[in-house]
Amino acid sequence: MDIQLINAQRQLPVPCSRLTQLARCAVRRLRIQTRGRLEVTFVSAQKMRQLNKRFTKHEGLTDVLSFHYRHEPIVGEILICPQAAWTYTHRQGPAYRQELARYVVHGLLHWLGYEDRTAAQRTDMRAREDQLLSHCG
After folding, report:
1. Considering the entire predicted model, what is its pTM?
2. What does each C-alpha distance from 24 to 8, 63, 108, 120 come to in angstroms?
3. CATH code for the domain in which residue 68 is found
4. Total Cβ atoms within 10 A of residue 8
5. Three-state DSSP class for residue 77
6. pLDDT at 78
7. Alpha-carbon span 7 to 10, nearest angstrom
8. What is the pLDDT of residues 6-32, one digit of tens each?
């Protein structure tokens, strides 16, 4: 699978080459054999609020949205909001670039079908994220 990162916002820096390497490593580690392209796009907070309302019917900002398509050439999209990462890191303490890396892996897991609606699902997903970040990050 081909991974393409697109920085469609200009408010915050996004280390695209580093995150592309991370995403490719995670795809190999997860043994994803899907043919086609997965687009990871970094969007502004305003755009993410609009997309969140449109696709999930939720008001407000979210960090990651994932869409899995069943056709080529584009097999999916992961939308990431750097502003959400920036805000979170200033409240909780992890480094901004580490949080962006987590969002890439988090979005990839959602694209594969992992959910984080329950406490058990969140715990499982966090453990998988930690494993991938430890190996690839």
Report:
1. 0.94
2. 20, 21, 11, 27
3. 3.40.390.30
4. 11
5. strand
6. 98
7. 8
8. 999 999 999 999 999 999 999 999 999
**What are the CA-CA distances from residue 124 to residues 22, 131, 135 (Å)?**
20, 11, 17
| 122 touches 110 (CB < 8 A) | no
Q: Which of 96, 125, 133, 104 is nearest to 39 (CA)?
A: 104
Decide: 40 and 3 in contact? Cβ < 8 Å: yes
Look at residue 14 and give its three-state secondary structure: coil
Q: Name residues whose C-beta falls within 8 Å of residue 120's C-beta, 6 or more positions apart in sequence.
A: none
> Which is nearest to 24 in space by CA: 14, 38, 7?
38
Q: What is the 8-class DSSP label of residue 66?
A: E
Main-chain dihedrals φ then ψ at residue 121, nearest 5 degrees: -65, -40
- Which residue segment(s) compose the domain that 69 sits in? 2-136
Residue 53 tokens, joined: 């309302």
Q: Which residues have C-beta within 8 Å of that of residue 49, sequence separation ≥ 6? A: 59, 60, 61
What total of structural domains would you count in the chain?
A: 1
Q: Per-residue confidence at 70, pLDDT binned at 50, 70, 90?
A: confident
